[in-house]
Design brief:
The chain has about 950 residues and is of the alpha/beta class. The protein folds into six domains: about 230 residues, P-loop containing nucleotide triphosphate hydrolases (Rossmann fold, 3-Layer(aba) Sandwich); about 160 residues, Rossmann fold (3-Layer(aba) Sandwich), CATH 3.40.50.300; about 80 residues, Winged helix-like DNA-binding domain superfamily/Winged helix DNA-binding domain (Arc Repressor Mutant, subunit A), CATH 1.10.10.10; about 60 residues, no CATH class; about 190 residues, no CATH class; about 140 residues, no CATH class. About 45% of the residues lie in helices and about 15% in strands. The strands form six sheets. Strands 3-4-2-5-6-1-7 form a seven-stranded parallel β-sheet, with helices on both faces. β20 and β21 form a beta hairpin. The N terminus and C terminus are likely disordered. InterPro entries: ATP-dep_Helicase, DEAD/DEAH_box_helicase_dom, DNA/RNA_helicase_DEAH_CS, Helicase_ATP-bd, Helicase_C-like, Lhr-like, Lhr-like_DEAD/DEAH_assoc, Lhr_WH_dom. Keywords: ATP-binding, DNA damage, DNA repair, DNA-binding, Helicase, Hydrolase, Isomerase, Nucleotide-binding. It comes from Natrinema zhouii.
């Protein structure tokens, strides 16, 4: 330890040192020893240290010291209660901003910082969206020394006249959980906001706090806007003790399974978690989805265990209540999702359980780091796994966490909708602004350092067209319009404003839950199956106007495969690649005659687990060798096929496999003229192909596709996707363009119209960028193709399914990624079905002739054999009441309506012959829709059936209404 480390507290003034003694701080913690010296010297600093290791005090002690010193002024001068200070000047403004990503952290920070404020005679206050108008007014008139706030509230403060004056005195900005913001558009927006603050206040000290950062240099640049930044990092991995365990099923689990009405495997997971909670004083149990939290929570409740549930769908009151009960010891365990990763204060935690793989090293460190908060104490945790993929993945993540191999933060580089969001805010707060000044402010922010001025001008032109701001071309200046203020305050956040759809059981009418708009837009169609509240449901109807999805329960869940089970956290390529490396290490041992237990013992030297867990996982690899199937590794891809199902075993992670899958699906779809089903996970790409696709076709795509064309091929496939349209709708809303396009039509704009309208605009460019940034990895997918083609990666085939190939899990519904009109097999099916359907032919002239026949037996121009008339109505095979209505001499209103409908059908058949019979034989297609289909000009028969299918789908969506 250096003299500087020992003397960290001596860098602080006597007033703050007195507070340290009063608070019981006898010696600095590790992050305080490292970071207080540069912080006291006023350096921009990124502090990386475990949650609970005193990061908040590390950052704030030097800030408090500077505020108390006040350049020689007593701190009370900063907070004079009169409108003016004692020297007759205006009151001082804010001294420091403490910015947190969660409102709940606001509450915690205020409670932690208020003691220091009281002792040092500094005012600490909180401001966020729920702060009362009265409190906001007080803060504007008499700003506190330290304001704890959120990124969105900073945006609002930058536009208020009195608040802008108060912000001119800011000398320090602390950003908590900076890694969370660096990887989001909220952070990109804040980065510009900090440059706008710098224009007001001049240079200020920037301090970033985080428990885990994979690329400290990059995040430091994000924090400072490319200016110098000191990095002070504690080796988080050395303070983490993680064990990976898959429980063996016991007799107790068999009994529990009956009690909980579940499988014995699941019961063993519940039992192990219960035992771990009982063994420790206070345990956080992390899960990856809210559905899992609810499902596990219900089982703990069934067993009457003292374990609470905490996730974002619960009300604020419910979350605070369970946090307080856990902190007070009223419950022993807290079942939670990602929001608890961040530093919400729930008191002392001595163990953390992660149920199933945490998917990323960052997440594991954030979560396990919540345990063991006594000074320099090791954080202990257990990952409870459920299957081989899960175990190997968790082993890789635990090893990488121990060795400090953390994923880099994926900074949003040049988000154009963020620029569109900030330009109106700049002109609203500053008034008329020259374009080059606005460009200079925006491009000082690190994520926007490479955005060309020409691009900013394109965005300004779009905002001008949408009347969000006014562009005075003669003066090269931007000005406010009547819509600027409203836009700014409606768009303080970059979090998309997504609608929530209520899910109702069609039988009982009761609500069973909610679905996000993203899910409804990208996936939901009548007939699709999904899981909610632990049960499987089939979608019956979607009502966009009422934001309601009607569903019916699946009677026999065992016979159904859900099309969608929830969005997974993407597994990085490095983690998946290490799973491939574990397989490569095991392969020669298994081939030489070693069994799974022996291989497991070998792995135990490198990975933190027990013999049973390692043996269970390696049994899958042993089965692969016993099946005489090649082993998929980081250097070998295995292509297996059974029937129409093709699986490419490729351990390259979620985003790379999604990209490769889209390439295969698009190019094979073009080759076959049919849609190709696609499903990916970090280790497999599963395709459902038409019978016309041979295995050699798949090999040809992998061996012949130019790696340099990957991005273009994927983008071409995206152009017709609902996923892109959904992103484009969100992006265009930030440009104020969506409203303009909606106003040209009636209500919700169709995806096709939106995509066509906004192509070749900055909005389209940003939507594409966002999809590539979040969901795809073009660079790695290209390198995989290049590796296959150069021979650096081996590509082998296997007939039939393999144990590893069958070991996958759904990663979110099968997506049909096909070239336009690549639906030959679908059209063939529709044609054959209609041709084999039966219809009633009725002569409306003599009304005597009636026959029931298959559509394919109807002549090109039907005529009555009795009277020779060609006015033949084509009716549904069960429409006997229509025949009776036509023949009736005295008709009631209902019969008259039926007769008129039959006459319209006869007129259509007289004019168009068998084509009209085919159209009206379709489901839900009457004479009116049939006329629309027939009168449309088209090039071939496939187009005709394609239009029929479109009408049938429209009817399926609205059937409940017609019924």
């Amino acid at each position: 330890m250096t003299d500087g480390d020992v003397a960290a507290f001596t860098r602080l003034g006597s007033t703050v040192r007195g507070a340290l003694s009063e608070r019981g701080f006898s010696q600095p913690t590790a992050p305080q020893r490292l970071a207080i010296p540069p912080l006291s010297a006023g350096e921009n600093t990124l502090v990386i240290a475990p949650t609970g290791s005193g990061k908040t005090e590390t950052a704030m002690l030097p800030v408090f010291d500077h505020l108390v010193a006040g350049d020689g002024e007593p701190s009370t001068a900063r907070r004079s209660s009169s409108a003016e200070t004692s020297d007759g000047g205006p009151p001082e403004g804010f001294g420091a901003l403490y910015i947190t990503p969660l409102r709940a952290l606001n509450r915690d920070m205020r409670e932690r910082l208020e003691w220091w404020g009281d002792y040092l005679d500094l005012e600490v206050d909180v401001r966020h969206g729920d702060t009362t108008q009265y409190q906001r007014g007080k803060q504007a008139e008499n700003p506190p020394d330290v304001l704890v706030t959120t990124p969105e509230t900073v945006q609002a403060m930058l536009t208020g006249k009195r608040l802008r004056e108060a912000l001119e005195d800011v000398s320090h900005v602390v950003i908590d959980e900076v890694h969370e913001l660096a990887a989001s558009k909220r952070g990109a927006q804040l980065a510009i906001g900090l440059e706008r603050l710098r224009d007001l206040a001049g240079p200020f000290q920037r301090i970033g706090l985080s428990a885990t950062v994979g690329d400290p240099g990059e995040v430091g640049q994000f924090l400072t806007g490319g200016r110098p930044c000191e990095i002070r990092e504690i080796d988080v991995g050395s303070n983490v003790d993680v064990t990976v365990r898959e429980p063996a099923v016991t007799e107790e689990d068999e009994r529990l399974a009956g009690e909980l009405m579940t499988e014995a495997d699941t019961a063993s997971h519940v039992r192990l978690i219960r035992d771990l909670v009982e063994k420790h004083e206070s345990t956080l149990i992390f899960v990856n989805t809210r559905q899992t939290a609810e499902a596990l929570g219900s089982r703990f409740k069934e067993l009457d265990l003292p374990i609470g549930v905490h996730h974002g769908s619960l009300s604020k009151e419910a979350r605070i209540d369970v946090e307080d009960r856990f902190k007070a010891g009223g419950i022993d365990g807290l079942l939670c999702t990602s929001s608890m990763e961040l530093g919400i204060d729930v008191g002392q935690v001595d163990h953390v359980i992660q149920y199933k793989s945490p998917r990323q090293v960052t997440r594991l460190l954030q979560r396990i780091g919540r345990a063991g908060h006594r000074q320099d104490e090791v954080s202990s945790g257990t990952i409870v796994t459920t299957r081989p993929d899960d175990t190997f993945e968790a082993l890789s993540i635990a090893r990488r966490a121990r060795d400090g191999e953390v994923e880099p933060a994926a900074i949003h580089e040049g988000s154009l909708d963020v620029v569109a969001n900030q330009l109106p805010a700049i002109v609203q707060s500053r008034g008329d602004t020259y374009v080059d000044e606005a460009v200079e402010t925006v491009t000082r922010a690190y994520p926007f350092r490479t955005v060309p001025e020409a691009t900013v001008r394109e965005i300004i032109s779009e905002l001008h067209r949408n009347r969000i701001l006014w562009f005075d071309e003669a003066e090269d200046r931007i000005e406010t319009t009547g819509g600027t203020w409203q836009y700014v305050y409606a768009n303080l956040s970059m979090i998309p404003d997504e609608e929530t759809y209520e899910v109702h059981d069609i039988a009982s009418g009761g609500q069973i839950g909610t679905l996000d708009e993203r899910f409804v837009v990208n996936f939901a169609q009548p007939g699709e199956v999904f899981i909610q509240r632990g049960e499987m449901w089939r979608i019956a109807e979607i009502d966009d106007e009422e934001a309601r999805v009607k569903v019916s329960p699946i009677e026999d869940p065992a016979g159904e495969v859900p099309s969608w089970i929830g969005q997974e956290i993407p597994v990085p390529a490095a983690v998946a690649g290490e799973v491939g490396e574990i397989r490569a290490v095991a392969e020669p041992q298994l081939e030489a005659g070693a069994d799974a237990a022996a291989v497991g013992r070998e792995l135990a030297g490198r990975y933190p687990s027990d013999e049973y867990t390692l043996t269970e996982a390696c049994t899958q690899l042993e089965q692969q060798i016993d099946a005489d199937a090649p082993m998929p590794t980081a250097d070998r891809l295995v292509l297996e096929r059974q029937g129409r199902t093709i699986v490419l075993n490729a351990p390259f992670g979620h985003t790379a496999n999604e990209t490769l899958g889209r390439i295969l699906s698009a190019l094979l779809g073009q080759r076959a003229g049919s849609s190709v089903g696609l499903e990916t996970d970090p280790y497999r790409i599963e395709l459902e192909v038409p019978n016309s696709i041979a295995t050699s076709d798949v090999l040809a795509v992998l061996e012949e596709t130019d790696p340099d064309h990957v991005e273009a091929i994927v983008e071409l496939g995206l152009k017709r996707s609902d996923a892109l349209a959904f992103r484009l709708a969100q992006v265009s809303a930030k440009f104020g363009a969506l409203k303009r396009w909606q106003n040209r039509g009636s209500g919700r704009i169709s995806n096709d119209r939106l995509l066509a309208a906004l192509e070749d605009t900055p909005m389209y460019e940003e939507a594409i960028r966002e999809v590539f940034h979040e969901d795809l990895d073009v660079e790695r997918a290209s390198s995989v193709l290049a590796g296959i083609q150069s021979g650096d990666l081996e590509l082998v085939t296997h007939r039939g399914r393999t144990p590893i190939g069958l070991g996958g899990r759904s990663s979110g519904g099968k997506e049909l990624l096909a070239p336009e009109n690549a639906d030959a097999s679908v059209i063939k099916t529709v044609r054959e079905r209609i041709q084999n359907d039966r219809v009633i032919l009725l002569c409306t002239h003599c009304t005597e002739w009636k026959v029931k026949t298959k559509v394919k037996r109807v002549p090109d121009q039907p005529e009555c054999p009795e009277c020779g008339s060609t006015r033949i109505a084509s009716l549904n095979p069960w429409a006997d009441e229509v025949v009776q209505a036509v023949r009736s001499q005295e008709k009631d209103d209902e019969q008259r309506e039926m007769t008129e409908r039959a006459f319209r059908a006869a007129s259509l058949v007289q004019s168009h012959g068998k084509q009209a019979v085919i159209a009206m034989a379709a489901r839900g297609v009457g004479p009116h829709n049939a006329a629309q289909i027939i009168n449309k000009l088209r090039e071939d028969e496939a187009e005709f059936y394609r239009d029929i299918l479109s009408k049938e789908r429209e009817y399926a969506r609205t059937q409940a209404f017609w019924d």
